[in-house]
Amino acid sequence: MYKYIQIFLVALKLGCISFGGPTAHLGYFYDEYVKKRKWLNEKEYSDLVALCQFLPGPASSQVGIGIGTIRGGLVGGILSFLAFTMPSVVILIIFAVVMNGTDMSTSWIQGLKLVAVAVVAQAILGMSKKLTNTKSKILLALFVLAITLLVHHILIQIVALTLTGLYGLIFLRKSDHPATYSKQIRIPKLFGVISISLYFALLIILPIFRTIFQNVWIIMFDSFYRAGALVFGGGHVVLPLLEKEFVPAGLISKDDFIAGYAAAQGVPGPLFTFASYIGTNIEGIVGGVVATIAIFLPAFLLLFGILPFWEDIKSNKYIDGFLTGISAGVVGILIAAFYSPIWISTIKGELDFVLASVMFVLLMHFKWPSWSIVLIGIAIGVILY
């Protein structure tokens, strides 16, 4: 029981302080779960990140679910998700209920963006030491960095990671492939098969039900489920997709959508919880809860479908080489995301650069905890911006 309480409380803390979007979340996770608590080693964390980057859906949330599952089985994965997601869900549902058309004060958001710069920079440096420790891996990261920033397509990350994975499969696999220490994932393989089957079944059945019944609840569930099941690239990609699903249909006004978009950028936790705001705006608090379940359900089904077979997959030397290539590519994705949108939307002048540098030094070299840097960021935003 203590283990489950610990999983919940640690994830809840991260859910309250993890500002800055998916890339920053991976930085917070790395700092908390790998460096501080050592629930995973570097290899296990990088493999999990590589897997979740390759899957559709909210990558950072899936990493959190995976860590909870590795630590505490199926219950641990669910508790980790609930705790990490709950703060932003509650905030956005309340905002949708009480919103009266007035503009939000966003002065403090700039301070939190500066925190994200420091956190992501720390994560990139920490992960790159392990994942890009040879010239070939550095070139793979550079390739993904370049193609991600220069080619603007929704699937470009998947294409880039596939290419780096194929390179790793051919050139980076180990001929002897020694056994590696790994933690047992306590999910039955039958449960994994059922999860994967249900993932695809809902993609087929929900649109049919939507056409037949024309019910607002089925329409909502189908739209949010498809958004969570088919989107690559994380929360920033799902926002315009949701706009196309709900604004033209008249289920939410453009002004309300934009207000919620602003709120979603300013709360901690996953951007996918924007669905909580939209669902509440359409059908009240129950609608917000249903929307949240629908958009995150694919992430659970995919991850719980794959994790029972994960150790068998990783023990194959070819898959290990594939994952090694992808892990190097993930560093390139993190650097690309560090530049856009984090850096270009945050560092507007010398003051921004100085403040972000100070927080980075406090985090990296003075070992200040992440939550203290978040409080500093909020204070800086309120006082200086």
From TrEMBL:
Membrane-spanning parts: 6-30, 74-96, 108-127, 139-170, 190-212, 224-242, 285-310, 322-342, 354-384
Gene: chrA
Keyword Transmembrane: yes
Keyword Transmembrane helix assigned: yes
Membrane topology listed for this record: Multi-pass membrane protein
Family: Belongs to the chromate ion transporter (CHR) (TC 2.A.51) family.
Originating organism: Staphylococcus hsinchuensis
Pfam families in the record: Chromate_transp
Protein name in UniProt: Chromate efflux transporter
Location of the protein in the cell: Cell membrane
Entry keywords, A to Z: Cell membrane, Membrane, Transmembrane, Transmembrane helix
InterPro entries, per database record: Chr_Tranpt_l_chain (IPR014047), Chromate_transpt (IPR003370)
